[in-house]
Fold this sequence. Notes:
53% of the residues lie in helices and 6% in strands. By secondary structure, it is an alpha+beta fold. The radius of gyration is 18 Å and the shape is globular. This is Mitochondrial inner membrane protease ATP23.
Amino acid sequence: MERGEADPPAAEGQRGEGEDDFGYGLFPDRNKKPQSFLVRSLFTFHNRCQLMLRMTLDTNPYAQLLLEAMKQSGCTVFNDRHFSCENCDGCVSGGFDSATSQIVLCQNNIRQQSHMNRVVTHELIHAFDHCRAHVDWFRNVKHLACSEIRAANLSGDCTLMNEIARFKFGLKGHHQTCVRDRALRSILAVRKVSKETAEKAVDEVFDACFNDLEPFGRIPHSKTDAKRAYKDFQNRDRYNANL
Length: 243
């Protein structure tokens, strides 16, 4: 499981002490039987999560671009199939379960629409990477690091306003610092590796993955940037179709 917001089915049986659970422990509802629609409908958290998800998918330009890009790559996303609102560990907001190609949204931790927008975008970037490349999420920490770098860079996680809200300030190179830090935090949350190992993986792939701006073509620092990127993406598809 890749934890997207920095703030995987699990193997059957008991794991030995110190064995990596690949972050699934942060998402306890992953191993539970699905509740009936009637039971789920009684819980405000679940209703609110579903409503905010629909709003994001219908109106957020970051998410709309990623959904279109995944469709173009042969990986159409369906709301009921590829998103799941669940209760999670108190420290996480969302994750991408590569075993089921499903995005987990932590209904007990996502309380604002802007937060939902960021989480969905972040996890859709992981899903896009999973669709377009042979990502070895569980055995190659460099692959995980690359996708976490891209997600932090392109999802809006490191916008100026978000960093100010975290009481983090900086000028030159601050965006890169934020991306590096959030990628590192996400890796350490879902993998039992040393900080030194995680830092080494981030350092080795940082330049290439930070500069991989697909499918946006730019770093979208705001919704305005994302709208422009979405428009450019649509025009690019029309241009390619006429070749």
